[in-house]
Each structure stands twice: as C-alpha cells, then as structure tokens.
Amino acid sequence: MLDKIGIAKRIAQEVRDGMYINLGIGIPTLVANYIPKDIHVILQSENGLLGIGPFPTEDKVDPDLINAGKQTITMVPGSALFSSAESFGMIRSGKVDLTILGAMEVSEDGDIANWKVPGKMVKGMGGAMDLVASAKNIIVAMQHCSKDGASKLLKKCTLPITGLKCVKRIVTDMAVLEVLPGGGFRLLERAPGVTVDQVRKATAGRLEAHDDVPEMRLQ
C-alpha cells in the first residue's frame, strides 16, 4: 500500500497546467513537492498567500512564512500576500479550480467528513466548509481504512459532515476511486501490490470494480 508520499505523488498527476489550487492540511500539503516541472500552477493558502512553492530546505526556513497548517513554506516568483478576508473572497467567488483535502470519511454520495470527531477538542472547522462549497473540483487524500481496519469509504458518513455531494475523486493508500453521479464508488486504479478483491473488502460503500483494474503508476 502507499505511504503518504505515494498518495501525494499520485494526486500530483491530477494537476493540470494553469490551475489555481488550494492544498488542505496533512497529506495534501505534500503535493506541492511532486507537481511535474512542466506544469505551471498557482497554489493558494487560505491564510493569505498565492504562489506557494515546495517545502523549504533547512537553510531556507522562514518562521514567519507559513501555510494554513502552520508549516513553513516557500514562495515562488510573483507570489502575493494578502488578508484572510481577501483569501476567502477568492475561495467563495469560485476562483479556486481544485481543492485537495484530507478526510476522515467519504460517503458513496460524495459527502465528506473531515473536521471533527465528537468528544474530541478541535480549534474549529477552519476553511474546509468554504472550500467544499466553492471549489470547482475536490480530490480527497486519505487512508482507506482506520487503524482498527474499519472502512472510511462508507454508504453514509457517521461523523459530522463538512460538505454534501462535493467529492469527485479519492486517492487512498489502496486505490484511486471516483464518485459516480448516481452514487457509489468506481475503482479506477489500485496501488502497487494491492488486489481488486482487497479494495472490495476494504470499501463499505457501494463499489463498481472490474477484475482488470490497472495498477497505478508512480513517478
């Protein structure tokens, strides 16, 4: 199965030239390191930055330059800094082409739960609800199953919902899946060494999966 870097590398293949992209906290932030060199995109952070570069090497770290997850980052030539209010104006007006988010659960209808586990302290929902309501396309990066082996791809989400019917594609440590318009998941690719049957057993929601689904290629 894929590790976090493998998931980020596979998602980077979904990026298209000219896109404005918001990277969520966690695995999605790693995608910035693996965007092909011949692809030009603008990465946006909701705390007020347009033009995020790869993570800095130790000698390039600036503690005042952070993303929404409070990780130190770099800026590419032509980057811009602005207020959080302006940043959310960009998001809410539909200027972001692609949002890449982590998730705790995704339902077969494309619902996402990624901000709260009941009973646990959280700082707040952050910008997740604005992003899922406004982005033109949403890709989720997540583990296919929980630590105890329970599927995170469900018929219905059990955790508080962040957004309804908004997820288009999911990349997990086991597979690449899309959410079908009428509901259900379709298996597009499987991780190296993972069988179609393993994906079927690990997916609680309705799954369309042919036996000849190809293995994903990672560069």
Key phrases:
219 residues; alpha/beta; Glutaconate Coenzyme A-transferase; ten-stranded mixed beta sheet; three-stranded mixed beta sheet; 16% helix; globular
Please tell me about this protein's structure.
The protein is α/β, with parallel strands linked by helices and 219 residues long. It has one domain: Glutaconate Coenzyme A-transferase (3-Layer(aba) Sandwich). It has helices spanning 4-12, 27-30, 84-92, 128-134, 196-202; strands spanning 20-23, 42-45, 49-52, 75-81, 98-102, 105-107, 112-113, 138-142, 153-154, 169-172, 175-179, 185-190, 207-208. The strands form 2 sheets. A 10-stranded mixed β-sheet has the order 4-3-2-1-5-8-10-11-12-13, with helices on both faces. The protein has a 3-stranded mixed β-sheet with strand order 7-6-9, with no helix packed on it. The longest helix has 9 residues, at 4-12.
